[in-house]
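To whoever is on call:

I kicked off a structure prediction for a single chain this morning and the downstream step that reads the tokens threw a length-mismatch warning. I double-checked the sequence; it's 146 residues and nothing unusual in it as far as I can see. Pasting both halves so you can look.
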Amino acid sequence: MQNMIRRNIALAAAAICVTTIIGCGVRHTEVSGQAVFEDGTPLTLGYVCFVDTASEYSVSGKIQKDGSYSLRNNADDTAGIKPGEYKVVLGTTRLTEKVGDKYVTIDTVPPEFTEKSTTPLTVTVKSGTAMKYDIKVPHLKKPTSE
């Protein structure tokens, strides 16, 4: 009987350790912010993607019409991101507009902001509390009809 009690206590302790290690593991940090042009005009389409500098782990958030975004982990549908160093990439930031008598596709942000290898935007995410990260990018000149 005493061996059974010891065994149950040992199993319970092991379960608590495993739950602590796995279940409570790395705390994700909720990240949100505003994506705007240098003049304060909000980006109104696309997404913001945080890409880990040491791996390909990434989390993204859709840019809303007011320029706001919040990161969501699509793999497990949780808010936030694990702590670490990230490059910030802007994606799908193209518009199709009528210029003169033609329709053209226009990049709305400089191309360096759309690739991990060239983006100048970096951020350190710490564990725990919510974080606000606002993004400011220059406008690209729109093509004009001639």
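Update from on-call: the warning came from a stale cache, not from the record. Cleared it. Sanity check on the structure: The longest helix spans residues 2-23.
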